[in-house]
Write a structure and sequence with these properties.
Number of helices: 13
Radius of gyration: 22 Å
Structural class: alpha/beta
Largest sheet: 8 strands, mixed
Helix content: 25-40%
Strand content: 25-35%
Length: 489
């Protein structure tokens, strides 16, 4: 059995002014054969799983390229077409193959290609013909629609949010693809559209119960091979934006239709119960600083780089400074220029520094502060699931009694490494303010006395009914209160 594997991952926010260029993808590219085998590289988890299993003799693997760019605005037409051409050329050179494995985000938008991954999968199908099995792994913040299901035989999404199971679901996809190639499995696909958008953290009780139920059904129902919850990405302006339930059975379409419908209706019944409420800045500070146990972790989802935001908003930090808060850590703030000034000044230097507030009106105002450089790391990183995410150069600065992490690469807060690499012990802080939505929970959740969420004034509007959608299909909850779900595939 011969399998070609490749990857293309970015998440596109259609409402931010941070275009995604070819250089961005090339910086994150892993060349064929260069995927590490000791630990999964971010964006190449499927390749990592495939290499491990090929090394065990399960199949012959042809390694393609893995392209990755941090979440931002739409990708340039030229960048997407170049990468699509590269993957198709690699695949043509590998023919004949029995199967194709694609690690994709599923929430990418390129100029002139509003269904970018749908276009890519269709081109891959055009290269291999109708009989080769195509398997795709998506991030749950994706789109799943008819074009993608028409051209891919098997689609599997990560289940956990934070995404701690990327490699686990990659292995599930590989199992299904190899079984399909061997004639042991005939995939039948069912897709239910809930006609809603929301946030679905699996660290919360409602979604924890729901996702555990999906896993139990997969393990107990002999007809069901895979169940995936499509969260959708609320900042991806597409006619196919919606929460959906994807069920794959072994040649049992009617059974899958009924199950997808039942699970979809159960999720509709949870509307408004899965996302955490946001506090205003002063209320968040009051609650954190008044807590009897520490550290209190406060996440700002409105300036989350993982959702395409610049991560340079200063509103929370400015208020902390105004209130003369103490024993507090804040991060990450993206400011490559400020980072370079701090690195050049050296640890221990006390310098005047203008930081943050640069990219857009939602970035707040630049802060002019006298700071002390307390730490620096030239090649910093954070743990994300089983992978490492680079943060570029990182520095710690102290403003009064507030410790702040600045990074040269745009990133959200994934793990305590963000702080520990530059000498900040967050477990000794009264409060830790993070720019993230939920991925931080895997690392910060276990050490937090409590977790709060703050409306920090960034560009990622959390009242989805106020987003300036132009392409979403209506009705869609919460814009339309009575939006009803239905089976669509």
């Amino acid at each position: 059995m011969k399998i070609y594997c490749a990857g293309l991952l970015t998440e596109t926010n259609c409402f931010v002014n941070l275009p995604t260029s070819l250089d961005t993808f090339l910086k994150g590219r892993i060349l064929p054969g260069a995927c590490p085998v000791d630990a999964p590289a971010v964006g190449a988890e499927l390749m990592f799983a495939a290499k491990r299993r090929a090394a065990a003799g399960e199949f012959e693997l042809v390694e393609g390229s893995c392209f990755r760019a941090s979440p931002a605005g739409p990708t340039s037409t030229q960048a997407y077409e170049m990468m699509r051409g590269t993957l198709c050329e690699e695949l043509r050179a590998a023919l004949p193959v029995d199967a194709v494995l694609l690690g994709l985000h599923g929430g990418m938008f390129a100029y002139r290609y509003p269904d970018t991954e749908g276009d890519l999968i269709a081109h891959i199908r055009g290269v291999v013909g109708p009989d080769v099995v195509i398997g795709v792994e998506f991030d749950p913040h994706c789109i799943v629609n008819a074009q993608r299901l028409d051209n891919a035989d098997i689609v599997v999404l990560y289940k956990e949010y934070p995404h701690t199971d990327i490699v686990e679901q990659a292995d599930r996809l590989i199992d299904l693809v190899t079984r399909a190639v061997a004639g042991q499995f005939r995939p039948a696909v069912s897709l239910f559209d809930c006609r809603q958008v929301d946030s679905y953290p699996t660290t919360g009780p409602a979604m924890r119960r729901f996702v555990d139920k999906l896993k139990d059904i997969e393990n107990a129902d002999g007809k069901v091979e895979s169940i995936s919850l499509v969260h959708g990405f609320v900042y991806g302006d597409s006619p196919d934006l919606s929460t959906r339930l994807l069920v794959i059975t072994n040649d049992a379409k009617d059974h899958g239709d009924a199950l997808a419908t039942r699970l979809g209706e159960e999720l509709i019944a949870l509307r408004g119960q899965t996302a955490s409420p946001l506090l205003d800045i002063d209320a968040a500070i009051d609650q954190a600083m008044g807590a009897s146990s520490a550290p209190v972790v406060i996440a700002d989802p409105t300036d989350n780089a993982g959702g395409g935001a610049p991560s340079d908003n200063t509103d929370v930090l400015a208020r902390l400074i105004e209130r003369k808060s103490s024993n507090v850590a804040v991060g990450p703030i993206w400011d490559p220029g400020a980072v370079r000034l701090c690195v050049d000044s050296g640890v221990g230097a006390s310098i005047p520094l203008r930081l943050g507030g640069k990219v857009a009106s939602t970035s707040g105002v630049p802060l002019d502060c006298q700071v002390t450089v307390t730490g620096a790391q030239l090649q910093s990183w954070q743990v994300f699931g089983s992978s490492r995410v680079p943060a570029g150069e990182s520095v710690a600065i102290r403003i009064g009694e507030i410790d702040v992490v600045l990074t040269s690469e745009r990133t959200q807060a994934f793990s305590i490494d963000l702080f520990s690499h530059v000498g900040i012990d967050v477990q000794r802080k009264q409060a830790v303010f993070l720019k993230s939505v939920n991925h931080f929970m895997a690392s910060f959740g276990p050490i937090a006395s409590q977790v709060l969420y703050v409306n920090g004034g960034g560009p990622l509007q959390r009242d989805y009914a106020k987003l300036p959608y132009r392409h979403v299909r209506r009705p869609l909850w919460p814009i339309d209160e009575r939006a009803k779900g239905s089976l669509i595939y």
